[in-house]
């Protein structure tokens, strides 16, 4: 019996180690909302630096106070399906780096949904940069 338990633990651990983070994060079905463009070309300017620039820049404007979030689940294994997600939304990347959220923590949500997941946190303010991540 101990051998079976140990084998299951190893299989579970190895599957967990090979899990990949979701990619192609989108907000209101728009990808690359974190990028700044100059005259239509990608730039090295961060969204938080826009107030100090004089160049003509373009950004994605999310005008929805309750945006929909989405992502693609990646895996090297065939037939991999998402069974749950956990979304964190924060006002700074430092907060997210600690796996914390000051605006919305969805908690573990048992769902295969990865498109158009509605934001359900504190009210978002216009002209403000927010940060989010998802674990599946």
Question: What attributes does this structure have?
Answer:
alpha+beta; Immunoglobulin-like; 11 strands
Describe the overall structure.
With 136 residues, the protein is an alpha+beta fold. It has a domain at 21-31 and 62-135: Sandwich (Immunoglobulin-like), CATH 2.60.40.10. Helix content is 16%, strand content 26%. The chain contains two helices and eleven strands. The chain has helices at residues 2-18, 93-97, and strands at 23-27, 30-31, 37-38, 41-42, 57-58, 68-72, 84-90, 104-105, 109-110, 117-118, 131-135. The strands form three sheets. Strands 2-1-6-10 form a four-stranded antiparallel sheet, with no helix packed on it. Strands 7, 8, 9 and 11 form a four-stranded antiparallel sheet that branches. Strands 4-3-5 form a three-stranded antiparallel sheet, with no helix packed on it.
């Amino acid at each position: 019996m101990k051998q079976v338990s140990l084998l299951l633990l190893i299989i579970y651990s190895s599957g967990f180690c090979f899990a990949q983070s979701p990619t192609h994060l989108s907000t209101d079905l728009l990808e690359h909302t974190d990028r700044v463009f100059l005259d239509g070309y990608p730039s090295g300017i961060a969204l938080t630096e826009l107030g100090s620039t004089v160049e003509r820049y373009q950004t994605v404007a999310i005008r929805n106070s309750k945006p929909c979030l989405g992502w693609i689940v990646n895996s090297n294994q065939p037939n991999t399906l998402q069974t749950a997600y956990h979304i964190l939304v924060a006002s700074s990347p430092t907060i997210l780096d600690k796996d914390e959220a000051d605006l919305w923590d969805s908690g573990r949500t048992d769902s295969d949904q990865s498109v158009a997941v509605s934001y359900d946190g504190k009210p978002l303010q216009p002209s403000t940069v927010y940060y989010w991540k998802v674990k599946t």
